[in-house]
Structure formats: C-alpha cells, structure tokens
Amino acid sequence: MGGMAFRGRSVLSSRRQVTTTSSSPQNAATHAEVGGNIARLVARHFDEKRFGVDDTLRGKLRLNLVRAGYFRNDAVNFYVLWRAVTVVLLPAVTYLCWSCVSERPAC
Are 35 and 72 in contact (CB under 8 A)? Predict the structure, then answer.
C-alpha cells in the first residue's frame, strides 16, 4: 500500500514538473513585457538630470548601485523613481495609519 502511494506521488510530481517547464517560456515573455513597459515609463519620465542629479552624484549612485547588484544602465533612473514614490507614499500611508489609530476620525 505504501509503495502505491509513493509511486502515485512521484508520477504526479513528474507531471507537474513537465507542466511547469513547458509553460515557463510563455510566462517569461509576459514578465519581460511588463518590465519593458515599466522601463519605458522610467526612461520617458524619470531622467536623473530632470531631478537635479549631476554627473558627480550620478557616478556615485551608479557605483553604489553596481556594488548592490543593480547592473542595468537605467538603474539610476529606477532609483530616482523609487525615491519619488517613497517621498509621496510614506507620508500618505503614515497619515492614514495615524488617523485610523487616533480617537476621532479624520473625515
């Protein structure tokens, strides 16, 4: 009885592996398209010179990002994007959490 259960489990796991390996190229294309769209958005709207990053600061940022493992050419632009998102979202989320915890409602 235990042998049949083991054999059934191994057959099911091998079928899952075949299914996941055959479907991964399709999923990889979807992820590449999403990354491409985000990269185009960043390239179009988040240029480091637009936000006051001069060549000296860009060099230091690029060096630190390469040390951290970000090797893309537009890593500095993504860094500027996430800094801007953090500056906007962190105070908004903090305010919403504070208003939910406080005694009287904010609205």
Answer: no
pTM, 2 dp: 0.52
Q: Both ends of the chain: CA-CA distance in Å?
A: 64
Residues 27-43: tens digit of each pLDDT: 444 444 446 788 888 88
Torsion of CA 67, 59, 80, 38, to 10 degrees: -70
Asked if residue 95 and residue 60 are part of one domain, the reply reads yes
The amino acid at 52: G
Q: Is 53 in the same domain as 95?
A: yes
Tokens standing for residue 19: 């299914």
Which structural domain, as residue segments, surrounds residue 62? 48-107
